Amino acid sequence: MSALTIRELPERTMRTLKARAARNHRSLNGEILYIFDYIASFGENFSFTISRPESPDVTRQRDAILALAGQWKDDRTDDEIIADIEGSRTFGREVEL
What we know:
The chain is mostly helical. Helices cover about 55% and strands about 0% of the residues.
C-alpha cells in the first residue's frame, strides 16, 4: 500500500477534516482515505459540490417562501407587526425537569 505526505495543509482544512471524521465516526486517516476513494471512484467525471444539496423539505419550504415574497400586503409598520406576533405567542405547556 502506498503512503502520501501532505505539506502545508491549512489549519482550517485540518479542523474541517477532523470534525468531519468525528461526525462520521472515523479516524482522520480513515476520513481522508474515504474522501480520496470516493473521488477516485468517479474518475474524471467527479465534480466538486460547493454547497450541500438541499433536502426536499428545505427546497419545498424555500419555494413556498419565494412564492409568498412580495405578495403580503399590510398597512402596519414593521414594529406593529412584530408586536402583534410577540403578543400572539403562547408560553406552551409547563414541564418539570
